[in-house]
Amino acid sequence: MAESTGLRERKKAATKAALSEAALRLAIAKEGIESVTAEEIAAEAGVSTRTFHNYFPSKEAALLYDFHETTGRLLADLRERARTQPIWDAFRDATIDMHFDEKFDIDDMRCREQLIHSSPSLIKEQSGQFMELFAEAIDIVAASTGTSKDDLYPRLLLGAALVTMKSSTEHWLSDPGERTLAEAITEAFALFERGITQPPPAPAT
Amino acid sequence: MAESTGLRERKKAATKAALSEAALRLAIAKEGIESVTAEEIAAEAGVSTRTFHNYFPSKEAALLYDFHETTGRLLADLRERARTQPIWDAFRDATIDMHFDEKFDIDDMRCREQLIHSSPSLIKEQSGQFMELFAEAIDIVAASTGTSKDDLYPRLLLGAALVTMKSSTEHWLSDPGERTLAEAITEAFALFERGITQPPPAPAT
DNA sequence: GCCAAACTTGCGTGATCTGCAAAATTTCAT
DNA sequence: ATGAAATTTTGCAGATCACGCAAGTTTGGC
Questions:
Q1: Does residue B152 contact residue A171 with C-beta atoms inside 8 Å?
Q2: Which residues of A touch B192 (CB under 8 A)?
Q3: Of B5, B51, B115, which Cα lies nearest the Cα of B18?
């Protein structure tokens, strides 16, 4: 079983989560990841500085751990869905099925979002992770649309999908309003189906 | 005059360019920016290490100097065009008018492209610069479409435009084929006008 | 209980990036 | 041309980062 195979696995996972949480907690407390050191994060989680770097290459990566995990699962889900669905629908449904809103604490995510958007190093780390996702997903998209990964079309389609994923989630997070996250995602993906360039959006948002 | 106002200005610009070129040359020679140090770049350009860091915060930024300059000019151009054109057309035309193909050496750009795509730190730096561009352009897009910068629509539109800009240029660079860069850009922007999600591209690429 | 495998830790190293103040250079007014 | 003012270059020191290495510690299977 890949599940709780042993004490060892569980301990490692716990340490990794503890480090990530410690990073977030300290970054919030000090109002910015730049004023937090790897040493502090390690201390907060009760391990040595060296061990911190065994788990994460940087404090930025530690803070974005959940995000990275989630996109990893998204990718696996997408691979499955692409076998039976048009790729655009697969992307939309996979994005909805991540259930960001249920899986994570909304306030934590808001804090994280704010930290990211006010830190160049976190912006770089996050967009770097998106590019990684792009590189991993391009084969799926190319195969699904019957094109080559070197063609223009799959790149544009995938780029649009990733932008939609990121924007809709961020938008919903900044103002949940009346809608559920799933509705916001659905609306965002629909905007591309009607042609993003032509009409201004019907009412307002 | 902002033009050649004095010896001082020109010397600074020359130093900056020399540092950027030195970074590219060394990165090509050593097959990767990671095996080049800031110290080496400074030496190659004939200044001290400290001076290098007066001009660029990192070797990655030095290597991407041209790119950063170009997007800066694009932004100014876009601001102008948005006054008289629909934003999507403004983006397309501004992208074409950057004249990447005339302004820079094709082989240099290919090398740079390859260096970027095989270096995590360069990918992060570049995508970070794109996010910076996003932040600076979102107001223009929102104003131009009569929406708020917090709405979903301008973010998706801008994201699509940036993806198109990046993808079309990269795609043309990797295989100039029969087309000009302007034609490749035009084709890419047109794909969104027809609705990127629905039809596979007509023939192949 | 014991051993091999895996994990943690401390140490050392090379590199990054920044602040600060002294030295060198350029500009400008006279 | 000359000297004062402004600006740039430079060296140095310091904080941090990120990683290799080797010794110590813990875990899991038998």
A1: yes
A2: 156, 160, 195-197
A3: B51
**Chain B contacts of A198, Cβ < 8 Å?**
193
Residue type, B37: T
Q: Which of B87, B156, B166 to mutate to test the interface with A (most CBs of A within 10 A)?
A: B156
User: pTM score, two decimals?
Assistant: 0.92
With contacts defined as CB-CB under 8 Å, which chain B residues touch A188? 152, 156
Q: Please name the residue of chain A whose CA is at the shortest distance from the CA of residue B203.
A: A147
Fill in the DSSP letter of residue A196: S
pLDDT tens digits in sequence order for chain B, 205 residues long: 334 466 678 889 999 999 999 999 999 999 999 999 999 999 999 999 999 999 999 999 999 999 999 999 999 999 999 999 999 999 999 999 999 999 999 999 999 999 999 999 999 999 999 999 999 999 999 999 999 999 999 999 999 999 999 999 999 999 887 899 999 999 999 999 888 787 665 654 4
| Residue A4's pLDDT band (cuts 50, 70, 90) | low
Q: What is the pLDDT of residue A205?
A: 47
Q: How confident is the model at residue A11 (pLDDT cuts 50, 70, 90)?
A: confident
Å from B72 (CA) to C18 (C1')?
Answer: 26
| pLDDT value at residue A3 | 46
Domains of chain B: 7-58 (1.10.10), 64-193 (1.10.357.10)
Mutation target to probe the A interface, by most A beta carbons within 10 A, among B93, B116, B124 is B124
Q: What average pLDDT score do residues A84-109 get?
A: 94
Q: Is B77 exposed, middle or buried (0-12, 13-18, 19+ CB in 10 A)?
A: middle
CA distance A117 to A199: 29
CA distance A82 to A88: 9
- What one-letter code names the amino acid at B52? F
Whether A37 sits with its Cβ under 7 A from any strand D atom: the answer reads yes
- Which residues have a Cβ under 8 Å from the Cβ of A192 and sit 6 or more positions away? A88, A160, A164, B156, B160, B195, B196, B197
Is the Cβ pair A146, B200 closer than 8 Å?
yes
Rounded distance in angstroms from the CA atom of residue B32 to the C1' atom of nucleotide C11: 29
| Cα–Cα distance measured from residue A168 to residue A166, given in angstroms and rounded to the nearest whole number | 6
Please report, for chain A, how many H helices and E strands are present, in that order.
11, 0
Distance from the B203 Cα atom to the nearest Cα atom in chain A, whole angstroms: 10
